[in-house]
Amino acid sequence: IKANSLFKSSGINAEYGSQPCNKNFLEWSSVQAEIGSRNKEIHCPRCPSKICLADTATLVHCEMKMSRYKVDAPEEEVVTKFWMLTSLMAFENIGVSHLVDNIKFLSCADCEVGPIGWHDINDKTKFYIAAERVRYSGNN
Q1: Hey, which residues does 64 pair with through a beta bridge?
Q2: Where are the strands (E) in 1-140, listed by range?
Q3: Dihedrals phi, psi of 82, to nearest 5 degrees
Q4: Is-contact 93 50, C-beta < 8 A?
Q5: CA distances to 95, 102, 135 from 120, in Å
Q6: Do 81 and 61 meet the contact criterion of CB atoms below 8 Å apart?
Q7: CA angle at residue 75 from 20 to 40, to 5 degrees?
Q8: Residue 116, exposed/middle/buried by CB under 10 A (0-12, 13-18, 19+)?
């Protein structure tokens, strides 16, 4: 499944963290989390928008082939670590793409960078955010 055509060109190839913000954000490499653990506050990789609050998602292992969202990344990559939320209402800020093969890809609703996650419409209780494609609040 390719998500490139589902997002505006201004968001899909944006550099990770390209817009300055005054908040203390952590990258995935600085976050210590194991499968089954709960999340820190999750933010957009580009702008300071809050994707979800702390303790609203669980880290899970599953595989999804996702289109790139950084200029220097491969066209597609298999992402294996995701924060799983059980309701669309658990998000503070999220954009949803058009349907492609029963999958809706997720993006930042403010700056439209994505894909940062996905949702299979056949399972209304699982929404996935790629752990390596977002930033984290260093304050919780």
Answers
A1: 79
A2: 25-26, 42-43, 50-52, 58-67, 76-85, 95-96, 103-107, 117-120, 127-130, 135-137
A3: -135, 150
A4: yes
A5: 15, 6, 23
A6: yes
A7: 45
A8: buried
Entry pTM: 0.80
Q: Which two tokens stand for residue 47?
A: 């702008």
* CA separation for the pair 38, 60 (Å, rounded): 10
| Residue entry with tokens 């492609």 | 100
Q: How confident is the prediction along the chain (140 residues), in pLDDT tens digits per residue?
A: 434 434 433 333 333 344 445 467 778 777 888 999 999 999 999 999 999 999 999 999 999 999 877 666 668 889 999 999 999 999 999 999 888 899 999 999 999 999 999 999 999 999 999 999 999 987 65
Distance between alpha carbon 73 and the CA centroid of its chain, in Å?
A: 15
Residues 55 and 38: their CA atoms lie apart, in Å, by: 5
**Edge-to-edge strands of the sheet including 58-67?**
58-67, 76-85, 127-130, 117-120, 103-107, 95-96
Tokens describing residue 26: 């952590």
Q: Which two tokens stand for residue 93?
A: 């800020």
